[in-house]
Design goal:
The chain has 211 residues and is mainly alpha-helical. The chain has a domain at 27-133: Orthogonal Bundle (Endonuclease III, domain 1). It has helices at 5-16, 27-36, 42-52, 58-63, 66-72, 79-94, 100-104, 108-116, 123-133, 143-151, 160-169, 175-191. The structure holds iron/sulfur cluster.
Length: 211
């Protein structure tokens, strides 16, 4: 058995190929998606994002009142709370004039600390924003990552920080690899490594202890 992350990456890649995440037209859409996806299925996020239509811009979110925003994002659940979070993240982005290149010029650690101080942004959301909206090498740890670690197993530790560090220390520091790896973990968890796993044609079945 190996817990060599590169080998796991390669096996998943052989099964799923390039996934081109995150499915969004603009970095701001990624930001909105990262906030709305908390505690809900992605299909609900898609409905909420569709409700914005042409209004999916930071300027609109900054100017709209919170109740209006809540109405738009209603399908994503916890809409009053998430509308406030969206306002907070957008206010943080306003500090960079809504300019992605200005954000990208900042040190990653500084941005992560800033994001963690924004209302509604925990570690997973902060890393999702850094990686998927701004292209920083920040590994995202979510429930699917933890599930894979437990089942395979990958001895990455228990806490968010431990697991993140383990993946970042054992992979090339490359946003494209982190992006693709996390995307493959998610799709494998949705299609095969479910609560009740369907190991039969899982790309990891040969090396996975549970498989
Ligand atoms: S072999 Fe089964 S338990 Fe292991 S990762 Fe695949 S689906 Fe999950």
């Amino acid at each position: 058995m190996t817990d060599n992350l590169i080998a796991i990456y390669q096996a998943l890649y052989a099964g799923y190929g390039d996934l081109n995440w995150w499915p969004a037209k603009t970095p701001y859409e990624v930001m909105v998606g990262a906030v709305l996806t908390q505690n809900t299925a992605w299909s609900n996020v898609e409905k909420a994002i569709a409700n914005f239509g042409e209004r999916l811009t930071p300027k609109f979110a900054a100017d709209a009142d919170t109740a209006k925003l809540a109405e738009i994002i209603r399908p994503a659940g916890f809409f009053n709370q998430k509308a406030e979070y969206l306002k907070s993240v957008t206010a943080w982005f306003a500090g960079y004039d809504y300019d992605v290149s200005a954000v990208r010029k900042q040190p990653q650690d500084k941005l992560r600390a800033e994001l963690l101080s924004v209302k509604g942004v925990g570690q997973e959301t902060a890393d999702s924003l850094l990686l998927y909206a701004f292209g920083f090498p920040a590994f995202v740890v979510d429930a699917y990552t933890r599930r894979l670690c437990e089942r395979y197993p990958i001895e990455a530790g228990k806490s968010y920080a431990d697991i993140k560090r383990y993946f970042e220390d054992n992979l090339p520091r490359d946003a494209k690899i982190y992006n693709q790896f996390h995307a493959m973990i998610v799709i494998n968890a949705k299609e095969r490594c479910r609560k009740k796993p369907l190991c039969g044609d899982c790309p990891l079945r040969r090396e996975c202890r549970k498989g």
